[in-house]
């Protein structure tokens, strides 16, 4: 194993011509990626996967979980939400959050996205348990509002015949986009005259 130096390795890097071996428990210490999604191709630290989303943290950006500074770029230890591109966190922090929240409640802490956030985290080797026992906070309704995602159009004049709360599929005229910075306001693509290929929008306040 290139991490601990012991024998009995079970994983070989999938990069062509790379003969790097490591144990599964050594992957995190060695900066390796062993995705929890098919085809489960594993990579050593030299050839590990990186997040495809194009984003870089602004100066003095902090982790949303521990509030300590993150690195000035994406890395094995610094990750970003692929949906809003504004939620940054340390790998260790988001892994601890995933273990506590479990699959049923795991989501981006800023924009509340699950559709792209969960697959991205699984691909980047964040383990998300699928236990049936709910998180402790689900035993009360104190935090119910925190898990609710904003779901209405806040444009000055909503043009959607279905009303402000009407939501359609991605890429369509009446798809509801949330502010990429605060996620507290939304607009239908058509109400703000956004093009079909626009994947983000910011409210007037931000």
Describe this structure in words.
The longest helix has 15 residues, at 91-105. The protein folds into three domains: 1-49, no CATH class; 52-139, 2-Layer Sandwich (Herpes Virus-1), CATH 3.30.40; 147-205, 2-Layer Sandwich (Herpes Virus-1). The strands form three sheets. It has a two-stranded antiparallel ribbon with strand order 1-2. Strands 3-4 form a two-stranded antiparallel ribbon. A two-stranded antiparallel ribbon has the order 5-6. It is elongated. It has 206 residues and is largely without helices or strands. It has helices at residues 91-105, 117-123; strands at residues 11-12, 21-22, 78-80, 88-90, 176-178, 186-188. It contains two helices and six strands. InterPro entries: EPHD (IPR034732), PHD-type_Zinc_Finger (IPR051188), PHD_PHF7/G2E3-like (IPR059102), Znf_FYVE_PHD (IPR011011), Znf_RING (IPR001841), Znf_RING/FYVE/PHD (IPR013083). Residues 63-112 form the RING-type domain. Residues 1-48 form the PHD-type domain. Keywords: Ligase, Metal-binding, Zinc, Zinc-finger.
Strand arrangement within the widest β-sheet reads: 1-2
Low-confidence stretches are none
Helix content: 10-25%
CATH architecture of the largest domain: 2-Layer Sandwich
User: Helical element count?
Assistant: 2
Summarize the main sheet.
2 strands, antiparallel
- Measured by DSSP, the beta-strand proportion falls in 5-15%
CATH class value of the largest domain: Alpha Beta
CATH topology of the largest domain: Herpes Virus-1
Number of domains: 3
Cα-atom radius of gyration: 20 Å
Record field, number of beta strands: 6
SSE string, helix = H, strand = E?
Answer: EEEEHHEE
Q: What does the oligomeric state look like here?
A: single chain
**What's the mean pLDDT score?**
85
Report the principal-axis shape.
elongated
Q: Helices and strands: which structural class? A: little secondary structure
Q: How far is the N terminus from the C terminus?
A: 49 Å
